[in-house]
Write a structure and sequence with these properties.
The structure is a homodimer.
Chain A: H1 2-16, H2 21-37, H3 39-55, H4 60-66, H5 70-85, E1 93-98, E2 104-111, E3 114-119, H6 123-135, E4 139-143, H7 149-165, E5 173-175, H8 182-187, E6 196-200, H9 203-212, E7 225-229, H10 235-247, E8 256-262, H11 266-279, E9 283-286, H12 288-295, E10 301-303, H13 306-310, E11 317-323, H14 326-336, E12 341-345, H15 349-358, E13 363-368, E14 385-387, E15 395-397, E16 403-414
Parallel strand pairs in A: 3-4, 3-6, 4-5, 7-8, 7-12, 8-11, 9-10, 9-11, 12-13
Antiparallel strand pairs in A: 1-2, 2-16, 14-15
Helix pairs in contact in A: 2-5, 2-7, 3-7, 5-6, 6-7, 10-11
Protein name (chains A, B): Gamma-glutamyl phosphate reductase
Keywords (chains A, B): Amino-acid biosynthesis, Cytoplasm, NADP, Oxidoreductase, Proline biosynthesis
InterPro entries (chains A, B): Ald_DH/histidinol_DH (IPR016161), Ald_DH_C (IPR016163), Ald_DH_N (IPR016162), Aldehyde_DH_dom (IPR015590), G-glutamylP_reductase_CS (IPR020593), Glu-5-SA_DH (IPR012134), GPR_dom (IPR000965)
Chain lengths: ~425, ~425
Amino acid sequence: MLEKMGQAAKKASYQIVQLSSAEKNQVLMTIADQLEADSAIILSANEQDLADARQNGMSAALLDRLMLNPARLQGIASDVRQVCQLADPVGQIIDGGLLDSGLRIERRRVPLGVVGVIYEARPNVTVDVASLCLKTGNAAILRGGKETYRTNAATVQVIQRALEKHGLPKSAIQAIENPDRELVNQMLKLDRYIDMLIPRGGAGLHKLCRENSTIPVISGGIGVCHIFVDESMETEAALDIIVNAKKQRPSACNSVETLLVHRNIAGRFLVPFSARMAQENIKLHADGNAIAPLQSGPAAVSAVQDSEYRDEWLSLDLNVKLVDDIDEAVAHIREYSTQHSDAILTRSIANAERFVSQVDSAAVFVNASTRFTDGGQFGLGAEVAVSTQKLHARGPMGLEALTTYKWVAFGQDTLRS
Amino acid sequence: MLEKMGQAAKKASYQIVQLSSAEKNQVLMTIADQLEADSAIILSANEQDLADARQNGMSAALLDRLMLNPARLQGIASDVRQVCQLADPVGQIIDGGLLDSGLRIERRRVPLGVVGVIYEARPNVTVDVASLCLKTGNAAILRGGKETYRTNAATVQVIQRALEKHGLPKSAIQAIENPDRELVNQMLKLDRYIDMLIPRGGAGLHKLCRENSTIPVISGGIGVCHIFVDESMETEAALDIIVNAKKQRPSACNSVETLLVHRNIAGRFLVPFSARMAQENIKLHADGNAIAPLQSGPAAVSAVQDSEYRDEWLSLDLNVKLVDDIDEAVAHIREYSTQHSDAILTRSIANAERFVSQVDSAAVFVNASTRFTDGGQFGLGAEVAVSTQKLHARGPMGLEALTTYKWVAFGQDTLRS
């Protein structure tokens, strides 16, 4: 079955690739309209998914993530209209020139072809990914979380109706509706048809894809992010940034998990730090040297385990470690960071540049919250995923990350000598 | 053992990444000098490899590929000096700007870190890859063909001596000297230390890497390349291009393997085509419709098998098929091409653009030989590999393909609201 889906997607991609930006935007507008017109179908499918989820004892937080209502669906449709406003990277000439051989050459930006996306129980991702793929001339095969499979199926059918209104094959956007996990394993082997695979989920999903996929995979989304408070940094300003990086949205991958504090400022820093953390309900996990001074403060504190340095908290918990200097901070980050987002807070221009050049992460911040690592915040207008690998795209992936290029060479019956 | 090599390479990469372009060029000059100074060591190791290869009955062609002599070693050293002349992409600001939040952001081009390369019995590749990796601030782990393991080991020792002369860790360039194939399997799992894996070899090696590597892999190097002769093309000019694409270097991946001829010109084209192919000693493999007219010509001809459309000949053999029109030519290429290099020969501007936009290959040519797909020919100054996948790099990979970027953001104690 997946083989057939792959074939159909590849075939559809040959038609989608030929659309102009104006034509693609018309399709997107129809999708937005259709999502509103057919909202009752999607909402009723979503209600069934919710009922099952409640019966299976899903937590209130997850139920909320899964839930659609007219306002949320309206928001999703208006996001699609926003995508129309973005510049289309396809067709851009990256570079080129006239070669000594007489060949006129250019690198032309083109769609990838077929994009595969595996994601969890967020029903908005279906429309999000479909609209970004279509905007960049790609077909897509989507595999959403099994908890939302009815919602996803209904949503994709609405998208397919919009495609057919424009005379386009509905196989341009397909969902794997069967929640059987074995189909994921089959999907990972469809390298003949799928050009890029984006897993959006936890560490387990990324590992599964990295180890089993024969399709090039984008790894990312896991953020063990650090903030290093250098000795030149003022305490109050540092505390504001730390609270923002931890609390603005604790469950996000770009929230801070470990604070590294220069040992020389422990004396002036740790007391107000503990007071502020207590006020913000942030629980501390401190290393051997920091735990004694912190225990006399008001914030909850326990001893940090090595494994806690390696995993995301995604909650109001924060590791704290004293370091001798910037070198020890960089060494700690090299050992424990997932290369997502790391920050230095400093007034030293030399240390700022040193940190930026030595920390090997997708995003490196000087005197700013790690929470900025985001396609919207970085001005990309959209975000398909956040990559923490180094090939193809790194950090927030916008429309450009859904394209590749081809070399086009025009000769005049030109021979290689 | 490989775990330790990986660790050491990653550690060395942190030092190499800090070098300026001038410092890196000095190291490269020392490597070139050292290759000349220590040529006796390398040539004697090469003689032992050659003696073993002769004993194992290696063909004359392969022996020649494996063989080093003073002139070839001199050429290798001068290639290293050439690499010094190339512009260093590291440090380049790709784009950036001031965001509404007040963040000043830039995408800064940086080395990948550690590059893994698996290649066959070409001793020049060792120096080639090492110099390109160092030029771009990367460390490298090399695994050459077992037939040249002594030559490679001696060469890497010479490179390491040059590194140490500059106070750099010799683990920046390491070779897996043990020819045991099991070590390749271990190397494929070193995703913790190796950032990108480049296999340079046949289809079997690429399949092994795609299926087993947990490191992002660059697939490529396999070229089933096509030339389509459209009905508006003159016969003589077409024949010159076909001969160039087949004969200029038949064993190269960018040589043509299948010729597609518009049915409407079969009458005027096939007779002179057969005469020219006979003259050039090119053996034809023709489809059902082309075989009868070709059998009356002087060129050797047999019936083509479907499997022959799928594999590289890499010899003076050429498949020939008649197609109804450009659509059938494109459909054939979509089915059988390895997406390396495909060409149209035409005088129709509409068909040229149609072919260019519909053929999904790394390089698409209009009125030129497919033999131009090459880093040197395309003006990149060097070539690490030719990618036929769509992620990261496509077609000839120059220095830029050995880099990634990081997002660097400077704030003024900037918080996300």
